[in-house]
Structures are given as structure tokens and as C-alpha cells.
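Worked Example 4.2. Read the sequence first, then its C-alpha cells.
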Amino acid sequence: MPYTSVRDSRVHYEVEGRGPGLVLVHGTGGDAEKVFGNVVGRFSQDRTVVRPNFSGSGQTTDDGSDLTVELISDQVVAATHAAVEGPVDMLGFSLGAVAAAAAAARNPGLVRRLVLVGGWAHSGGPRDSFYFETWRKLLDTDRELFKRFSALTGFSSAALDSFGHEGLARSLADEWPPPGIGRQIDLGARVDIRGLLPRITAPTLVIGLGGDGMIPVQGARQLADAIPGARLVEVGAEGHMDWFADPSGLVELTRDFLDTD
């Protein structure tokens, strides 16, 4: 179980495969295994896949202070340097897309190609502020309602129906969320990387999820509009986490983009 250190934090990461580096960055409440465990094998045959856990997830530890975009992006960069020689390709999901975008902007030359999935540029709008405030209040008052709200906004209605009654009951019995999720939610409510985005020089693919009730597709449009030369792909009626069940579409989009000369 490898670790590295940066800014008074001990960063836990996973690494598999061989070849050019591909860094996969999880989102709020996720971790290297929960988010990308079913994706690693799709890339590790020909790539060194690095999966950092930023603060609040996995075995990463720090001083417990408020999280910042700078901290979590530095943790991603530290794990990258520890695991593989750069430049690397990087895919970030949700809050991980924020961290990946910041890492690319603040470390020119580190990222060869960048993929941002279900991300956003700032949380200052009324709807986003209201969402994060509600999410945090539910976490603090009723964990079961928090999990129900997360499922209802994180998955499309079609995905939820596909789980069936038993599958949804199992999700309520799962140990999720992790203890560090509150700090990640608080950071999500404060996100504003608009000043960083024009500094990204890596070719960038932004994937927006058309049925996303957690991070609406407008967030992806914010990113694509601000990153020079970014390509935006909006995927149908997909919910924020629908791809967890079947990542084949995301893998295909990512591979096509990464393999482009």
C-alpha cells in the first residue's frame, strides 16, 4: 500500500499496470477503489494506472483542517510523481475533475491530455449553493436520508430502477459515506477555479452528463467554455454516477481521446 507526503499530509494511492501514466482522480465521498475499481483493468494492460486518494478518502491523512483545491490537487500531483514518470494523462471525476483541472493548470507540462467528467468550475450559483447546503445538512442530521438524497440525485431514474428494490436496500445498508466526506462537501461548496482554467495548456476533453441531478451539465459547459481549445461531449440522459455500473461508454470516450495523435 504505497504512500507519499506533501503539505503535512500522507497520501495513499494505488498503482497497477505498466506503460505511460494514467491518473484517475475520484470525487466527493469516493475513493480509488469505490470509483475506479471496475475501470483499472480496462487500462492497465498498456498503461500505469495511478489512483490517488485525496484528503477524506482512503488511508490518506492530514491535520484535519478545511480542505482547499490547492491541497487536493497537490496530493494528486505528489502521488503522480511518486508512482510514474511524466508527463501523464489524467482523468478526474466530479470533485476529482476540479482537482485534476487545478493540477493541470498549476503544473504545466505534467499533464499530456486531460479528461474531466461530471465536473464544474464554481459553486457560486443559487442552485449549487442550495444543493451543497442541503447535502451537508442531511449528512449532519440523518445519514439514511443523506444516502437516499445522494442516490436520487446521483443516479438517473432508469439506473435506480435497474438496481431493483433489493439493490436499493443494499445501498442503504452499505457503510458509505466515509468519515471524511463532510470536509469534501464543504470544499465542493467553495469551489471556484475560474481563474485557473485559462492556464490549462493540455488538450482537454470535458464530458457532461445530460441527466445529472447532482452536478448539472451546465458545470461541464462552464469548464469547456473556459479551457482553451477544450472539446465538450454531452452524454444523453446519464446521471452523475450511472457509469459506475457500466463504465464501457466512458472508457471508450477516454481511450479514443487519449489515443488521438
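Now turn to a second chain, presented in exactly the same format:
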Amino acid sequence: MISYRLGVDDLADMRFACSPMLETATSLWALYEPSSHVLHLPWIRRTTALLEELPERELLLSLVAPEVQWLPDFVTPRPTSPLPDIEEELAKVRATPPARAVADVIRAYDGRRLPPVLEQLCEHPRRLRDRVGSALTSYWELAVEPHWPRMRMLLEADMVHRAQLLARDGAAAVLTGLDPSAQWANGVLRLRVSSYQLEYDADVRGRGFWLVPTLFAKHAISPVDPSEPPTVAYPARGIGTLWSPQPTPAPQALADLLGKPRASLLADLAAPTSTRELARRREVSPSAISQHLTALRAAGLVSRSRAGRVVLYARTPLADQLIGQSRL
């Protein structure tokens, strides 16, 4: 059980971020155990084939501790801004004190014997840190970077949703929605980490409190290094749509009312989505999508929010009601 005690100031300072380094590291879970990550099977198939040519494949997969599937803390640096750059985060990994890198690896394995590749590297801490940093850089470029715009769009959409939830329903609604195990009472957030025997209790006390959506975690996770800002990574919404090649079909009644292109767009906006992503799904130009979105927004069926450099569109409650009625 992980417990964080948050005061009023901590709740007011609660922030959201998405981390390319977190996605790079946690995606190793999906490669290590594909059967537990079936939503990512299209990506797993492509990446597994590509990894066969990567010299550091064995080292990368050994970072996932068996049974508990924990990762060394230093490969998932805590965010310091809402949208950190991958180069900034990789620089943090490469700048990790070598002794800490070794300690994090040993802690992740929780008393289990290290695989030979890690056992040998732990005898040379600086070499361990440098090789892991280099391997993660190559892995990012090969397996994650080509898909990052699409992944980031979904993560940013989740951040917008949680920020809106925070403004509408308050911090308790956000915190208890992070994970089915999340409990919030008397200023304490409790998270049960089922796969890892861990008892951790900490005061946030003005150190900042980051909430980070992620695509590859099956439940909320929280690195527990007391020297780092408290951070909770939680499963993002809409992961099932990440690798979906086709737009969501619209109900016929809605198509009759709005026309097929606009009805299809509206059906596809259950989660906030960018113009570019909507255009990619339909293989049309972003300007064509923008014209339809402008009309739908003028009719009160679509809302617009900004997440960093991206503008995201989503259905309004009126549109949800319209789609629900058209399916009856």
C-alpha cells in the first residue's frame, strides 16, 4: 500500500504531465508479457520483429524484474513540466549517479537474482548507467518515436479530461478515479500495488504532486524515491482506440440528420482528439476536417480545448445525448 498525505496547498498545486520516457520504459512490460497487454498487440507484433536487430535487446528486457515486473526508478525520471522533451528526460537518465543506478536495479528485483547481463554490469556502475541510457535511446528511436505523436495525443486528451473533472467535481473525484484501488479520506490518498510487496507512507508537504497518464500500466503505479517529487502514473482513458485504424461508425439516424462525414466525426469524438489525428484516420486533409468541426462547434455539438501545443476536440453533453437517442 502506498499512502500520500496531502494538505490543502498540495491539492491546489496538483499538476498533470505526460512523459515520453515513462512510455518508453513501461512499454517494455508489453514486450515482456504480451498476453497481459492485448490492446497493444498491433504495436507488440511490429516492435518484436524490429527488436530482433537491436543489440541491446537482452539488456532492455532484463530491466523488467520478473514476477513483480518492476522497473528501476532511474529509467522513469519524474516530470518537472507538463510536456517534457525526450532529450531532456534521456539526459536525466544518463546523468544518474552510478551508485544510484545500481541500487535501483537491485531494489527492482526485490531480492531475486539478477540476470547475467545486469549482474555483470552492476559490478561497473558507470558502465551500467551508460549502457542502459544508450539502450533506451536506441529503443525510443526504434519502437516509440514513430508512434509518439499519436500516443501523446491520447495522453494529452486524458490530461484535458482530468483537468476538466478537477474544475467541475474537485480533487476527490480526480484522485479516486485514478485506479479502482484508489482511496481518498481525511487528506490521505492510498493506492494498492498488488504485484509488489510495498508499504510506503509519505507527506507531500509542498514538494509538488504530479499525476501522469500512461498507456502501458495496468493499474496506478508510483515511484517511491523520497528525494523525488511524489508522482502517480495511472492508466489513461481510451487506450483501446490507440491502434485502431478505422474511425468509429456513426448511427444511421445521426448520419441522416447531419450527413455522413459530420456524423462520423461526432461518433469518433468520445475522447478528445486533434484535427490531425481525425484526418489521419480518414486519410483526408486536416483542412477538410476543420471545416466540419467548425460547423459542429457552431451547433453546440463539439467543444475545443488546448493541451500544450495541440488543440483537442470532444463531444459536448448535447452531442452525447443526440448519439444516444439516435441509437435507440
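Notes for the reader: The CA atoms of residues 2 and 72 lie 17 Å apart. The chain is about 50% helix and 15% strand.
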